[in-house]
Amino acid sequence: MSKVVLKNVVKQFGSVKAVDTLSIEIQDQEFAVLVGSSGCGKTTALRMIAGLETATSGDIFIDDVRVNDLPPRDRDIAMVFQNYALYPHMNVRENMGFGLKIQKLSGSEINARVQEAADILGINELLDRKPKELSGGQRQRVAVGRAIVRKPKVFLFDEPLSNLDAKLRVAMRAEISKLHRRLGATIIYVTHDQVEAMTMADRIFIMSKGVLQQHGSPMEVYAQPANRFVAGFIGSPAMNFVEATLKAEDSDIFITGNGFCLKAPLAFQPALQAHLGRPVVFGIRPEDIALSDDTSTDPGNILTARADVVETLGSEIFIHLACGDDTLVARLPVPDRPVEVGQTLRLGLNLARSHVFDKDSSNTIV
Amino acid sequence: MKNKLVSNALFYLLVLVIALMVLFPFLWMLSSSFKTQVDIIAWPPRLFFEPTLQNYIKVFEEQDFLKYFVNSTIVGGLAVGFSLLLGLPAAYTISRYTQKRLAVFILLARLMPGISFLMPWYIIFSRLGLMDSYTALVLSHMLIALPIVVWIMASYFNGIPTEMEESAMVDGATRQYAFLKIILPLSGPGIITATTLSFIFSWNNFMFSQVLSMEKTRTLPIAVYNFVSYAEVDWGGVMAAAVAIMTPAIIITMIFQKYVVKGLTMGAVKG
Ligand SMILES: Nc1ncnc2c1ncn2[C@@H]1O[C@H](COP(=O)(O)OP(=O)(O)OP(=O)(O)O)[C@@H](O)[C@H]1O
Ligand SMILES: [Mg+2]
């Protein structure tokens, strides 16, 4: 059992509220990812859980014990720092055994545990090297190794992959996920990379400016974003946002903007009713836009736009579209006929998966 | 291309001028130490002369040079040792808890002319019966060594990422243990710099010993002064003594200069 609970935690640096009334509950064995743009308070939150920073107010519990006043060493946690923070004057073996030595374990016990961790991470042949003789990826493994030898209640990771190249990052992502299952550990993982968050997390916690915006499984935050920030943050390329107004005509509601008029799906109508005539933001993901040659489809979901830029990625293409004053990105499978720049395209939108946000509050209406 | 040549030439000219300005007194001292009194005060100064070792013989025979040497070593060594003992944790605290005011306060103590401490010290130490004791001299020399240690080491510690000890603390260490086992082992170049500089400053200090010590604890610079009497100044003896005193300092500097330069710039460029 290792649960981490934050209740109304605030951290103030002078006039800056780095973390604002943060309440989260992380379950035993959960892989929780704290994600948000740079400076949103992720690291600060993690450091408060570690005990490296004291909370200005609020309570932090690990396994129902209030740890606010416990120093890091009494919290039974392990942390992997962004720059790994390996001890330069110790070799890998000593680095990994450092915490065990403090626990006064016997030499043979330390050796056995270091060996076990080294086997898991495949760093056996590195044990006698100094950190400066390691590559970035190897250092990262050692840092993880130093965390797992101690078998702590909770693992804290602060952007551990951000210093690695793209390919290695993908590999380590899978490896950390595997490690999580193997150890059955509770992990709190901080990143600004939504792809990392989506691929690794059991539950994602999205923060912005110190405030928790939403939490849920990757699919939940992808499909049902709580507000415009979450909608724009999760997913790549990011969701398209277009300013619009809502108009009622006959028994239908239309989302109209500068160069388009879309018929809201029936399921949207009850929620949209209250916002008729008010400024809203219409959001649609690039992957929910498709080329539509079929003129017979209900025209309520058709958008006409000019192709401005076409990016070919091999398996798919991104088209930057100009529609009235707005620009959108569409993500499509490579079409049979190549799309020319300047060409006018007829696009079908999957409106059932689109969203409408209140322009003032940015909250999701549907 | 031509510009580069000109600027290079200017650069070396400047270096030469500065080097001459810095080295001239030293060279003058060195040559005088091998001259007779007559040669020294001759006008115009004699560039070529018959060198004599008489001055050095005088220094080592007439003066108890070895005793002064030992005293300087004891006083410098202890003052630097205690300054490290007190200054390293102080510097660490200043660095990690950004105690700027404390740091400035320590610097102020260093910037105050040493002579302003001498009167109170003289009174305090004589009341305590500590005149001519190593205690008094070591304490006074710590005024020189401690600020050097604190300032060099605080900026050195600033260059060590805080994650170092934070990682150790998460791993189960107390802050003190992390300081001893992680931070100090990484501070070698800084400690060598601070030690070298503060030892040399202590070594060269004349004033404190002149006032606070008598026969027993006199340090080396006093030996120079012994060649100055009411009637005349024995320039040859003064110069020879000065050279003899400077030599160890120069040797130490040459041995450690690599570290000193590294240590002094370490705080600036975060690695
Ligand atoms: N020690 C500190 N003193 C003052 N302000 C701080 C301190 N640490 C962080 N902050 C501020 O708190 C806010 C949150 O910082 P934090 O490091 O938690 O962000 P982050 O989400 O981890 O960002 P990044 O993705 O860039 O690492 C920032 O505005 C930062 O400037
Ligand atoms: Mg951070």
Provide an overview of this structure:
The complex is a heterodimer of chains A (366) and B (271). Chain A contains nine helices and 20 strands. With 366 residues, chain A is α+β, with helices and mostly antiparallel strands. Chain A folds into two domains: 230 residues, Rossmann fold; 119 residues, OB fold (Dihydrolipoamide Acetyltransferase, E2P). In chain A, strand 12 and strand 13 form a beta hairpin. The longest helix of chain A has 18 residues. Chain A is elongated, with a radius of gyration of 25 Å. In chain A, 39% of the residues are buried. Chain B has a single domain, classed as MetI-like (MetI-like fold, Orthogonal Bundle), CATH 1.10.3720.10. Helix content of chain B is 76%, strand content 0%. In chain B, helix 4 packs across helix 10, helix 7 packs antiparallel against helix 10 and helix 8 packs across helix 9. Chain B is globular. Chains A and B meet through strand 6 and helix 2 of A and helix 8 of B. The structure holds adenosine-5'-triphosphate and magnesium ion.
Write the layout of secondary structure elements.
The complex is a heterodimer of chains A (366) and B (271).
Chain A (H helix, E strand, L loop, with lengths): L3 E10 L2 E11 L4 E6 L5 H9 L6 E6 L2 E2 L10 E4 L11 H11 L4 H15 L14 H13 L5 E5 L7 H18 L2 E6 L2 H7 L2 E6 L2 E6 L1 H6 L4 H6 L6 E10 L2 E5 L4 E3 L5 H5 L5 E6 L4 E3 L10 E11 L3 E8 L2 E8 L10 E6 L5 E4 L8
Parallel strand pairs in A: 3-8, 3-9, 6-7, 7-8
Antiparallel strand pairs in A: 1-2, 1-4, 4-5, 9-10, 11-12, 11-14, 12-13, 14-20, 15-19, 16-17, 16-19, 17-18
Helix pairs in contact in A: 2-3, 2-4, 3-4
Chain B lengths: L1 H31 L4 H5 L12 H9 L2 H32 L3 H12 L3 H13 L6 H25 L4 H8 L4 H9 L4 H17 L2 H6 L7 H6 L9 H32 L5
Helix pairs in contact in B: 3-13, 4-7, 4-10, 5-7, 7-10, 8-9, 10-13
